[in-house]
Design goal:
A: about 300 residues, MetI-like fold, about 80% helix, B: about 290 residues, mainly alpha, 13 helices, about 75% helix
Chain lengths: ~300, ~290
C-alpha cells in the first residue's frame, strides 16, 4: 500500500519537475536580448559563439533546444560559469554539501526542539507559559530571517565573540545559521505539537488508559505522542521547502558557501548558467523534500494513502 | 448597477461590519492604530522626515543615535530616521501593490476555476499546487532572474509568489458556496453565470480573501525586504528597509543602528499586520472558512 502510494507520488513529480524545468529553461529566452549573449562572457570570440550555438542547438527550434538543455542537465553538464569561469557543475558540487548540512541540521533542530517545547507547554499548561509560547510563535513567524541573523551576529559574534561572524570553518560557524533558520520552525512545530497533544488528551481512549491505572508519563510517551505526531509530520513535510528557502537567505548573510549564496551572487552578476543550475537544484531539493515528507505522512496515516491513490 | 458600484458597496459593507469590530479589543486598537499611523507616515514622509533622505554628509558619517540625528547616520552620513520613514513608503507601496495584483488575479482564477470546474479547474489547480510547495523566496528569485533586479520585478515577484494562496482560497470559497440553496435557487431562476458569480458568489466569498490579503501584505513586506537586502529590489538611492540593512552589514561593528532600526521597522510592522489580521479573523468569525482552503 505504501509502495503504491510512493509510486503514485513519484509519478506526480514528473509533470511538476517538467514544468519547473521549462520555466527555468525559459529564463534565458525571456531576458531582453539574444540568449546567446546572456550565456557568453564579454570578449568571447566568434568560435566560442559558434561552439555554444552548436552545444545548445540554438539554431534549432525552442522545443529541440529544451530537450538538448535538459539532456545536458541530466548528464550534469551545466555549462560554464560566465563570471567565475569554471564549470557550473563544479560550483554546484562544491556548494551543495554546505546547503544540505545547514538545511538538514536546521530541520533536525526545529523538529526536536519544537516538539519538546510543544510537549512541555501541553503538559504544564500554565497561562504565563502559554502567553510566552504565543509571543514566541508570533515572533518566529514574522521576524525576517536575515535580520534575525544580523542581530545574532551582532550579539553573539561581535559583542560576546562566541561564534565566528561568517564563513564555514568548523561546527561553531554552524550554530548561528542553524538557530536562525530553525527559529521559525521551532515556533511552528511547538504550536502544532501542543494543539495535537491537547486534542488527543480529550479522546476517550485516554480516559480509559487513565482508568486502567497507567501512569501519566506512560500515557504521554506511549499513547499520546504517536497520536499527536501525525499533524507534526504534516507540518514538517510542508516546512521542508521553507527550510531550504530559509537556508538561501541565511547562507548569504553569514557569508557561508552554499547554493543560496551562489544563486544570489550569480543573480547580481547576471551569470545565467549558474542561476539556472542553482534554481534547478533548489527546486529539485524542495520537491524531493516534500516527497519524503508526504511518504512519511502516508506511512503513518492510512487515510492519506487511500485518498491519493 | 454596474460592477464598480457593486464592488464599492460590498467593500463598504465589509468595512462597516468588520473593521470596526476588529478595533474592539486592546490588541486590535494598538495594532490597527499603528498600521494607520504607518500609512500616514508613508504618505506624508516628505513633511515628517527631519532630513533629506539622500543628503550625504561624509563628515558626519556613522554618527551614533542622538541629536539631531535621532537614529544616527549611515556610512554616507545620511539620516537613518529619514531613510526609515521614506523606506516605509517603498515597503508599503510595493507590498500593497503586489498583493493587490495577486489578489485580483487569484480571485479571478480561483472564482473561474471553482465556478466552471472541469478541465479548466484541474489545469489551474495543478499549476497552483505546483507553486504551493515552493518557498516564496524561491519563486520570487526565479521571477527576478527573468526580469532582472528592481522595484517593478520585486512587485511582480511578490505578486506571483502569493498568487497560489489567493487562487486556492477563492476557489474553496466558491466551491463551498455553490452548494448553498440560495445559489441553486438563483440558477434555477435562470440567472446568467456572470450575474451569479459577481452578484451572489463573490460578495460572499470576499471576506476571507481580504483578510488573507491583509496578512499577505505582512509577508510581502518581509519578502520585499529580503530581496532588497540581496540587492535585487530597490536600487540606490531609493530608500528601502531591506537595502538599508544590506548596506549596513559592512558597518556592522561600527554602526549597528543602521541595520537595527530598519529591521525593527520591518518586524514591528509585520507583527502589527499579523495581530490585526488575527483580530479581523476573530471579528469576522471566519477561522473555519480559512482552514477549509
Amino acid at each position: 500500500m505504501i509502495l503504491r502510494y510512493t509510486f503514485m507520488r513519484l509519478l506526480m513529480l514528473i509533470p511538476v519537475s517538467f514544468s519547473i524545468s521549462v520555466v527555468i529553461f525559459m529564463i534565458v529566452y525571456l531576458l531582453p536580448g539574444d540568449p546567446i549573449d546572456n550565456l557568453l562572457r564579454v570578449g568571447s570570440s566568434a568560435e566560442d559563439r559558434a561552439e555554444l550555438v552548436a552545444r545548445y542547438g540554438l539554431d534549432r527550434n525552442l522545443i529541440v533546444q529544451y530537450f538538448v538543455w535538459i539532456g545536458n542537465m541530466f548528464r550534469g553538464e551545466f555549462g560554464e560559469a560566465i563570471v567565475l569561469r569554471r564549470p557550473v557543475a563544479d560550483l554546484v558540487a562544491q556548494n551543495l554539501p554546505y546547503s544540505l548540512t545547514l538545511g538538514g541540521l536546521a530541520f533536525l533542530f526545529s523538529s526536536t526542539v519544537g516538539m519538546a517545547l510543544g510537549t512541555i507547554s501541553a503538559v504544564v499548561r500554565h497561562p504565563v507559559l502559554d502567553r510566552f509560547m504565543r509571543g514566541f510563535i508570533l515572533l518566529g513567524s514574522t521576524v525576517p530571517g536575515f535580520w534575525l541573523a544580523l542581530l545574532l551576529i551582532l550579539f553573539f559574534s561581535v559583542n560576546l565573540g562566541w561564534f565566528p561572524v561568517s564563513g564555514a570553518g568548523g561546527w561553531t560557524s554552524l550554530v548561528l545559521p542553524v538557530l536562525t533558520i530553525g527559529f521559525g520552525g521551532v515556533a511552528l512545530v511547538a504550536r502544532v505539537t501542543r494543539v495535537a497533544l491537547l486534542d488527543a488528551q480529550r479522546e476517550d481512549f485516554v480516559t480509559l488508559l487513565h482508568a486502567k491505572g497507567l501512569s501519566s508519563g506512560t500515557i504521554l510517551l506511549r499513547h499520546l505522542m504517536p497520536h499527536a505526531l501525525l499533524p507534526v509530520v504534516t507540518i514538517l513535510a510542508l516546512r521542508i521547502g521553507w527550510i531550504l528557502g530559509g537556508a538561501v537567505t541565511v547562507e548569504f548573510v553569514f557569508g557561508r558557501p552554499g547554493l543560496g549564496s551562489l544563486l544570489i551572487r550569480a543573480l547580481g552578476q547576471r551569470d545565467y548558467p549558474v542561476v539556472q543550475a542553482c534554481l534547478l537544484m533548489l527546486a529539485l531539493a524542495v520537491m524531493l523534500g516534500t516527497l519524503i515528507g508526504d511518504v512519511a505522512q502516508a506511512s503513518m496515516d492510512p487515510r492519506i494513502r487511500e485518498k491519493k491513490t | 448597477m454596474n460592477v464598480s458600484q457593486m464592488a464599492i458597496r460590498s467593500l463598504d459593507a465589509f468595512a462597516r461590519m468588520s473593521i470596526g469590530r476588529a478595533f474592539a479589543s486592546g490588541i486590535g486598537i494598538v495594532a490597527g492604530g499603528f498600521l494607520i499611523l504607518l500609512v500616514l507616515v508613508a504618505i506624508f514622509a516628505p513633511w515628517i522626515a527631519p532630513f533629506d533622505y539622500a543628503a550625504q554628509n561624509l563628515l558626519n558619517a556613522n554618527a551614533s543615535p542622538g541629536w539631531p540625528h535621532l537614529l544616527g547616520t549611515d556610512e554616507f552620513g545620511r539620516d537613518v530616521l529619514s531613510r526609515v520613514i521614506f523606506g516605509a513608503r517603498t515597503s508599503l507601496s510595493v507590498s500593497a501593490t503586489a498583493i493587490a495584483i495577486s489578489m485580483a488575479a487569484g480571485m479571478t482564477l480561483g472564482a473561474a476555476a471553482g465556478y466552471f470546474g472541469g478541465v479548466f479547474e484541474r489545469a489551474v489547480m495543478t499549476v497552483v499546487d505546483l507553486t504551493w510547495s515552493f518557498p516564496d523566496i524561491l519563486i520570487a528569485l526565479i521571477f527576478v532572474a527573468i526580469i532582472g533586479p528592481g522595484l517593478t520585478s520585486t512587485t511582480f515577484a511578490i505578486a506571483i509568489a502569493y498568487l497560489a494562496q489567493f487562487t486556492r482560497l477563492t476557489r474553496a470559497q466558491i466551491v463551498r458556496l455553490k452548494r448553498e440553496t440560495f445559489i441553486e435557487a438563483t440558477i434555477n431562476l435562470g440567472a446568467k453565470p456572470s450575474h451569479i458569480l459577481l452578484r451572489h458568489l463573490m460578495p460572499n466569498a470576499i471576506a476571507p480573501v481580504i483578510v488573507v490579503g491583509m496578512l499577505a501584505i505582512g509577508d510581502g513586506i518581509v519578502l520585499e525586504a529580503t530581496l532588497g537586502f540581496f540587492g535585487l529590489g530597490a536600487q540606490p538611492p531609493t530608500p528601502s528597509w531591506g537595502a538599508m540593512m544590506s548596506s549596513g552589514t559592512a558597518q556592522l561593528f561600527l554602526s549597528p543602528w543602521v541595520i537595527i532600526f530598519p529591521g525593527v521597522a520591518v518586524a514591528v510592522t509585520v507583527i502589527a499586520v499579523n495581530l490585526f489580521g488575527d483580530e479581523l479573523i476573530r471579528a469576522l468569525d471566519i477561522r473555519d472558512r480559512l482552514r477549509g482552503a
